[in-house]
């Protein structure tokens, strides 16, 4: 049986070198975006989803765990941040911390349930757990049900930086994205990441080598959920609302799709995938439900003919590590 | 007490759908190693098929009960022949992703033409009205759905566990290579098995049409509940799927009576409890 | 390089000569990336019991699986009853009258003994009746309702052989039927094979236990590194003993 991540190139010693260069190029491109006249809200939204997809990819790409419920972290962090900012009057930085911490706590609870099973069952369990959260948020009062939390104030970061200014907000979001990206990058290349990868390849062997693989998987799940929550909190400042859309299963599906398009188990694939899918949604916004159909077609064609994704295909063709 | 019995009946009806759908998922998973995410969309297609038959061709409920599962089953077999069969040998998760994509396509197309609201489908004349059972009023159609679903579930169980065809199926689930080396056309069996599982989903869709109306997204949320049912009951046992499906429907019905706020979530909460107490699921076979 | 299959066929005692049922030429096979068979050449004639001998990993099991059509990537020619069966899918090969009993026996745990026994479809008339099978393996009759894998190892082996006798296939491929079995059971299986030969079955056997093989085989082929490197008749066994010890490393 071919394991999902067989399409990923083995990490080579020069891999790190390639990835550093790619990181430099990515950062430089993102830094000059406000000067290019590209609509900053589009890029900010894409950055939030890119971080979200990177967090998701940590689980599937390196731990072999397909979460079909990552929207629950996005949505939970969004609701908590939104509520803290709007109702409790939290400052932006505290609002982000509150939302991220809530997602982290949720990841501890859901992770310890979900990692009890592997493979397809893990996917079904995470999907069911996020649906459970969806119904809870649908009925809870602080989420305002179908309406969601609207008009969330952006405020002044550290009392100084006016987040209502798109340029300032852009650089804050970018800094947060790069921070989250580097945390994941560091985790993948740490001893922790190595154990995680060996668990994906052969869990029994990792266990027999003395690793408590369940603990590693749980830790990866918590890290992934927390960073997904971090992305959700950031998104509150961009969208200024928190709604049920972000907890819905279709959102979880979009996260999977972004990562699949970009390349499962690649470092930069989720970022590329997020930009591609968000751009596609922008351009096709007028097509109504056909967007869903197109997403389905992309899903199916990626699985059938393009399992390496964009970054994986580039790596494969040109022998560079992305 | 009337209200309790009424909710119990609703629970049994939902349980019928859970049982028919999780049964199909289990049969499909056994042969194809694919968790059929498109199962909810195909259930919806069953209901729409009945709707089209009635409104376009004037063909009523009874023929639809036979035609819709066969038509959707054939559609499923085409999917298997053209798309799913390429996944042989790949990680199980790819099957889930591909069928999720198929579900998005099917649901998206139907949403485009029919929006999100429900289309009515009338209860057939023969099953209109109700019976006074003394302790409760039983709408005939609802009673019919429960009894008929149970019969179909048991017939499927009999087919798989007690017939020669079922023996082929069980053997091919264990070791398809050897079964094929005995001279049995296993690829054809795989296609037919997918058709059978899909047909059961479509049948549930037809049964549901007069109760829940016909909506493009009617299967989208249902499939997630059915996944939770499958996690609880496991996919290793046919009878296990049937019993778990009905039992969870009943529990959901009871919750609607005693604590309605939790009726949407009770199946998921039970799933969490089962995972905490017995991580391998109730029938005990690991993934 | 001389064609060893031909050489081996030439050494065959004339009295045993029947029409060639199976003729394997330049058969190569791969498991994924690893190249296992490197050009197998041998023949099996009607009514013979032919044994493939060789060390572990020499390619004996792969040879049977390649003939059966189970190995995905294979080249060369396999002619069965003068029909080319490479490449064909295994279900078609089975329907032509080739029956296979795998090394791991392949008893299905979700089927009871009766279902296991009745599973392989009848491919042509002339198979053994259930009564004849129970005459050969009386143990099975008492265990019909047991779960297939609840049987002892010996009973499972008997079941694995019994179920392919029903199908009407006259060419049987048995992969290490004595592996891990007690001497008394091995004896019974030897008796069965002798009986089947008497009834006109043609049998291609893979064995590690060459003492057992010598009680049933008409001819031997030695397999090494995915090739037939030698062959001789049972009557020449004694003369070839030294060579055999070198080949098999016993």
UniProtKB/TrEMBL annotation, chain A:
The chain crosses the membrane at residues 20-42, 49-74, 94-113, 120-137, 168-188, 218-237, 257-280, 287-306. This is Branched-chain amino acid ABC transporter permease. It comes from the Bacteria. Keywords: Cell membrane, Membrane, Transmembrane, Transmembrane helix. InterPro entries: ABC_transp_permease (IPR001851), LivM-like (IPR043428). Pfam families: BPD_transp_2 (PF02653). It is found in: Cell membrane. It is a multi-pass membrane protein.
TrEMBL record, chain B:
The chain crosses the membrane at residues 6-29, 36-54, 60-79, 91-110, 141-160, 190-211, 223-251, 258-277. The keyword Oxidoreductase does not apply. Its main location: membrane. It comes from the Bacteria. Keywords: Amino-acid transport, Cell membrane, Membrane, Transmembrane, Transmembrane helix, Transport. The keyword Cytoplasm does not apply. It is a multi-pass membrane protein. It is found in: Cell membrane. It holds the Pfam family BPD_transp_2. Belongs to the binding-protein-dependent transport system permease family. LivHM subfamily. This is Branched-chain amino acid ABC transporter permease. It comes from Bradyrhizobium campsiandrae.
UniProtKB/TrEMBL annotation, chain C:
SUPFAM superfamilies: P-loop containing nucleoside triphosphate hydrolases. Keywords: Amino-acid transport, ATP-binding, Nucleotide-binding, Transport. Gene3D superfamilies: P-loop containing nucleotide triphosphate hydrolases (3.40.50.300). It comes from the Bacteria. InterPro entries: AAA+_ATPase, ABC_transporter-like_ATP-bd, ABC_transporter-like_CS, BCAA_Transport_ATP-bd_LivF, P-loop_NTPase. CDD domains: ABC_TM1139_LivF_branched (cd03224). GO terms for molecular function: ATP binding. PANTHER family: HIGH-AFFINITY BRANCHED-CHAIN AMINO ACID TRANSPORT ATP-BINDING PROTEIN LIVF. Belongs to the ABC transporter superfamily. Involved in beta-(1-->2)glucan export. Transmembrane domains (TMD) form a pore in the inner membrane and the ATP-binding domain (NBD) is responsible for energy generation. This is ABC transporter ATP-binding protein. PROSITE patterns: ABC_TRANSPORTER_1, ABC_TRANSPORTER_2. Residues 22-250 form the ABC transporter domain.
